[in-house]
Amino acid sequence: MTLQTTSERQATATPAKGAGSSTRLTALDGLRGVAAMVVVLYHLYLVAEPVLLKAGGSGVGSPIWWISQTPLKLFSAGSEAVLVFFVLSGLVVALPALGSKGFTWAGFLSGRLARLYIPVWVSIAIGTVLVWMIPRDQSAVTAGTWMDNSQATSISWGTLLDEASLTRDSYGVNNVLWSLRWELVFSVLLPLFVALAIVVRRHWAIAIAAAFVVSTVGVVSGIDAFHYLPVFFIGTIMAVRLDAIREWTKRRLLRPHSGRWGAALVVGSLLLIVGHSLLRPLVPGGSVADTLLSQLSVLGAAGFVLAAIGVRPVRSALESRPSQWLGRVSFSLYLVHMPILATLTFLLGDDRWWLVAMVTVPAALLTAWGFHWAVERPSHRLARRITRAVSTGVESHRARSSKAA
């Protein structure tokens, strides 16, 4: 997600004065948890897809049709769920920079790097141990499929160190780390994103439209930076305008008899997220129309984040205990599920995808819970200490420089 870590969610859920005061955005924690679970289901779908295609084809009424070309697609909209992560990161990572007392860029970035890299390195270590302990026979998976092409069957030390840097385009040890690369880039560029969002805050609609256009250009041109970074920027604009968003939701979405506005926002956002899948029989894959329809999921992701903030039934569902628990372990779940899924698929074979799914889901949730307590929480504490130490050092240096001047 990527994903925002729990301590960052706690730190940014209550915005600073002037950036949307007083009310915790706990629903966004739940949204992140639901999105992480959708990513897990999406990867399970990719395992099952070649077997289901071989058995029943992709025509109307086939299992693949039901899963991928009906509203059921929402449960396996993994690529779209990552866009939700990016919007969320753009929103909640930017909030502390908007007037929080004691905030420094150096302190933020040093803590952010610790929060990202430590859990990532442990997840890579887990994936590496699993590859070494349980050999991966490529004959166990369908040739030419996602599982066959994207998962490591052997690991060199050079590859291991390369993946640990989060600078690669693809990752064989832990496939999901590609998104953490863009989280890292966004973190480094956060001052620029925040400054630009403040400049354009009065013209937010034009700015979001421009971000959408740049993202679309990125898809067409194959430039990933153009594709993904504008999605973070949309979230940053939402952070800068959080007070206005809350005021709008009070006027339109939280008053009695305002259900139609909320329903329109939720349904419209969900249709934007999966509309390209629903229209697949009418729009050829890879066409210009298909690209534009797929890109609408960027706006759908932003719309659903808005719904999580302002639509009472959605917010209540995301603030429920199951959603909040998923949100608490979401970063860990995102990091650990892929090594588990890949190992089980090569061990059991993708022809037994149903058994892979039955074992993967509880194993991933249980491992995520343990990973959260054993790795993620300690990394949060270390990151907070680093942030405080660096921020204190920066403030002390500023004070000395001011006295000297």
TrEMBL record:
Superkingdom classification of source: Bacteria
Keyword terms of this UniProt record: Acyltransferase, Membrane, Transferase, Transmembrane, Transmembrane helix
Xref: InterPro entries: Acyl_transf_3_dom, Acyltransferase_3
Signal peptide positions on this chain: none
Annotated GO biological process: polysaccharide biosynthetic process
Molecular function terms from GO: acyltransferase activity, transferring groups other than amino-acyl groups
Domain Acyltransferase stretches: 27-371
Chain residue ranges for the region called Disordered: 1-20
Compositional bias per record (Polar residues), positions renumbered to this chain: 1-13
GO cellular component, one term: membrane
Record-annotated membrane-spanning stretches: 30-48, 81-104, 116-134, 180-199, 204-223, 229-249, 261-279, 291-311, 331-348, 354-375
Protein's name in the database: Acyltransferase
Organism of derivation: Lacisediminihabitans profunda
